[in-house]
Amino acid sequence: MRCPFCGNIDTQVKDSRPAEDHVSIRRRRFCPACGGRFTTYERVQLRDLVVIKSSGRREDFDRGKLERSIRIAMQKRPINPERIDQMISGIVRRLESLGDTDIPSKVIGEIVMETLARIDTVSYVRFASVYKNFQAADDFDKFVSELRPTSPAEE
Ligand SMILES: [Zn+2]
């Protein structure tokens, strides 16, 4: 588990016990790199996130696909890869905390655009311009392929 203070990935579990509700395990963690202490909770996830397309079709949420579309939009932008990872994790956490496991694809697109707009305008414009066609096409695979990186031959 990555240290939330310094980013060190080698943190230690000092203590592990069921939380009061007995549906989660509470772990106290310690970061030997910065001395930071933090707590994590381990929970059973009964249902995975499902994406509801505007056609009504359901598809398992695929973090990899989301990640690809974001990385392509951010291609060659001067943004630290670690920052991009954090951003993607932040988006996934937001989706998980929406309170419903069924998430309209539109909501995902909006959260991504909102996040990109705060981080990098160029990436936001790239994503948003393709996203508009994507909404019409309602096809995430098509969306990802339209966002594909420029091939070296085209440069
Ligand atoms: Zn640390």
Main β-sheet description: 3 strands, antiparallel
Structural class: alpha+beta
State the shape. Answer: flat
Mean pLDDT rating: 82
How many whole angstroms does the radius of gyration measure?
18 Å
Strand content: 15-25%
Percent of residues in helices comes to 40-55%
| Count of runs of 4 or more consecutive helical residues | 5
What's the structural domain tally? 2
Strand order of the largest sheet: 1-2-3
Distance between the termini: 40 Å
Are there runs of 5+ residues with pLDDT below 50, and where?
none
Labels describing this entry:
2 domains; binds zinc ion; 3-stranded mixed β-sheet; 3-stranded antiparallel β-sheet; 43% helix; 5 helices; alpha+beta; flat
How would you explain this protein's 3D organization?
This protein is α+β, with helices and mostly antiparallel strands and 155 residues long. It folds into 2 domains: 9-44, no CATH class; 46-145. Helix content is 43%, strand content 19%. It is built from 5 helices and 6 strands. It has helices at residues 63-73, 81-96, 105-119, 121-137, 140-146, and strands at 12-18, 24-30, 37-43, 50-52, 58-60, 102-104. The protein has a 3-stranded antiparallel beta sheet with strand order 1-2-3, with no helix packed on it. Strand 2 (24-30) and strand 3 (37-43) form a beta hairpin. Helix 1 packs parallel to helix 5 (140-146), helix 3 runs antiparallel to helix 4 and helix 4 crosses helix 5. The longest helix has 17 residues, at 121-137. The termini are far apart. The chain binds zinc ion. Zinc ion binds next to loops. Keywords: ATP-binding, DNA-binding, Metal-binding, Nucleotide-binding, Repressor, Transcription, Transcription regulation, Zinc, Zinc-finger. One of its GO terms (biological process) is negative regulation of DNA-templated transcription. Belongs to the NrdR family. It comes from Haematobacter genomosp. 1. Its cofactor is Zn(2+).
